[in-house]
Amino acid sequence: MNSDHFDERSTSALMNIIQDKDVGNENRYAATQSVLRRWRQGVDLEFLIDLLLSESSRDRLRGAHYLAELGQEVEGLNVAATQLADDALSDCRRAFVEYTVNSGRYDQTISNALAKCLLDLNLHVRVEVINWAVPISDERFENFSQLVEAGAGWPEFRFPNPLSNDFWNASILKRAVRGLDIIRCIRDGKEIEQIKKDFPEEDSFIFDVIQFSRTRRERLAKWQDKSQY
């Protein structure tokens, strides 16, 4: 089937094709691309919104995958996308950050959600926020930093002993400040290897992901040079 054929089908029919395991991969891919084109234009968004807000974790993961594939803001998805920041699934929280990067949106709700994601125990989510914060404007980063340091997004501890709450609040503050300091170092142009040495408490995976992203073009150029011989 050609792409025109899929574009003539209803979104409901296309979603069924995508889920049908008896359909060939090529047709499922074509159906997916047709649906994504519609959603980028703001058409039939209710299908994606239903996935993002579903009680089924499998459906929300599907929705998060589609959201990342869109690669742009779609106004009708903003509310549902932001709700992923509080999802129990780390892939959904990560999809929220990716959508924020692609959309360029920033307001009080989003900033609080990003602050929470910076403190996420899942390293993929934490590093996505770090990567988001590196290229943003000085004004926006200053606002974000103040929110994080003031406690935005922090978990609320309710131990009977208030000293236990103080212990974990101090731990969260330390991790929050460390994340902001790492971002500042990258924004200032410091080498990743040096930053890694300066912050031994941070998991090395964070720096590996950042370095991997920053050296993508260099690796591609080297690979292309080798392939010519």
TrEMBL record:
What is the designated name of this protein? HEAT repeat domain-containing protein
Organism (species):
Rhizobium leguminosarum bv. trifolii (strain WSM1325)
